[in-house]
Design goal:
By secondary structure, this protein is mainly alpha-helical. It contains twelve helices and two strands. InterPro entries: DUF6483 (IPR045507).
């Protein structure tokens, strides 16, 4: 009960902050909007905003991890604040490299939280992710973001797009990618035919993909053994 009250309190406080940020964005008071974000890092999370901004997405999640688990409320707040910061700076300066980097950090953390805690697989967050994806797919993305994009497409049921990214990552020799591919296809076998068709990856193509990955795994193992 105490934990639930704590979560509700954080969500309510974040909602107040986001309302203030939105007001300042709409009135083009971008400097004040950014100050509201900095205050939120300090008041909601107890973090120095400059410290968070200097950290990578992986470092942020690692900092919030305790005994192998993450309190999902803090990273979702960070993802929200990063997204708001990126949107404000885009309004001021356009989608430059710095703004893109902030969007990527936000995207990575959003996806990680949704995978970890299904409570956040809500339209509210998925709509925000959709908007970020529209921006970032125009660019050549780092491999770890590509992998998060694959996970995002699987989350929203776009299985054909998810598969396309996996094969790009195979070409890039992304770590453990054959295992990830096989796990993906095995998860899809538990979906209904309707879900697979809606995701643009019918069951026969899932089975073909699984066979193909099995063959690739055998070939990869043979090459390793002959070295």
């Amino acid at each position: 009960m105490i934990q639930k009250d704590y979560i509700m309190r954080m969500i309510e406080q974040l909602s107040v902050v986001l309302t203030k940020i939105l007001f300042n964005k709409e009135t083009k008071n971008y400097t004040q909007a950014l100050l509201e974000i900095d205050s939120a890092y300090e008041n909601l999370l107890g973090f120095d905003p400059d410290y968070i901004k200097a950290m990578s997405e992986g470092e942020i999640l690692g900092m919030l991890e305790s005994n192998g688990s993450i309190d999902a409320e803090k990273p979702i707040i960070i993802a929200e604040l990063l997204r708001e910061e990126a949107e404000i700076k885009e309004l001021k300066n356009g989608l430059n490299d710095n703004v893109l980097y902030i969007f990527l950090k936000s995207f990575y953390i959003y996806v990680e939280v949704i995978i970890y805690d299904s409570r956040y697989k809500q339209k509210e967050y998925l709509k925000k992710l959709d908007k970020i994806v529209e921006k970032i797919i125009q660019y050549e993305l780092p491999n770890q973001i590509q992998f998060k994009l694959f996970q995002y497409y699987e989350i929203i049921g776009c299985f054909g797009k998810a598969e396309d990214i996996l094969y790009e990552l195979i070409d890039l020799k992304y770590p453990n990618i054959l295992f990830e591919c096989k796990s993906f296809y095995l998860r899809l076998l538990n979906k209904s035919d309707e879900e697979l068709l809606n995701g643009n990856l019918p069951r026969n193509e899932v089975n073909e993909g699984l066979d193909h990955i099995d063959k690739m795994s055998i070939e990869s193992a043979d090459k390793t053994n002959t070295k």
